[in-house]
Amino acid sequence: MDIEDWRKKIDELDTQLVKLINDRAICAVEIGKLKQNSAMPVYEPDRERIIFDNIARLNHGPLSQIQLRQVYERLIDVMRQVQSVDTESDRNSS
Amino acid sequence: MDIEDWRKKIDELDTQLVKLINDRAICAVEIGKLKQNSAMPVYEPDRERIIFDNIARLNHGPLSQIQLRQVYERLIDVMRQVQSVDTESDRNSS
């Protein structure tokens, strides 16, 4: 395979990744609404610890645990943003 | 669906995401080897611009373009690390 073949494969993976990341964001939004109803905090360190343990267990490389965690730290940071903004806009519209 | 149901869904999505992110890393490693053989640089701003255009086109939310881009900036940063380290270890072993 040449560079262009590998790049085509990356573009295919990105199609799936963008979908899955947004699917994950839908879940975060829904959890945000449920948290709001029960006055739970957006930031839950125990749950985040479980996520990091899960992905470490699922990781068979080539990414190192640190590299995968770097990606996930950003991902979870953005998910927390989505959850907060959604919760706030709900509050403003109510 | 309650919070636990949404979290189960997130855990399922993470199983797929960890696999796809690593599949993407495999591609980056392979491209790194091909680049090394043809003395191409690891950092290619034109290719990265194409990736950002692609994901913006694929994005139908709920993530905003800025939020998706934040995730991808970290992802690509880590992919560049994988490519550089691999290229370096090849060089050291030759």
Tell how many strands the DSSP assignment of chain A holds. Answer: 0
Major sheet attributes of chain A = none
Q: Give the overall shape of chain A, derived from the CA principal axes.
A: globular
Order of helices and strands of chain A: HHH
Helix content of chain A: over 70%
Q: What structural class do the secondary elements of chain A suggest?
A: mainly alpha
* Average predicted local confidence, pLDDT of chain A: 91
What topology emerges from the helices and strands here?
Two copies of one chain form a homodimer.
Chain A: H1 3-37, H2 45-58, H3 65-93
Helix pairs in contact in A: 1-3, 2-3
Architecture overview:
The structure is a homodimer. The first copy, chain A, is mainly alpha-helical and about 90 residues long. Helix content of chain A is about 85%, strand content about 0%. Chain A has 3 helices and no strands. In chain A, helix 2 packs antiparallel against helix 3. The model of chain A has no long low-confidence stretch (mean pLDDT about 90). Chains A and B meet through helix 1, helix 2 and helix 3 of A and helix 1, helix 2 and helix 3 of B.
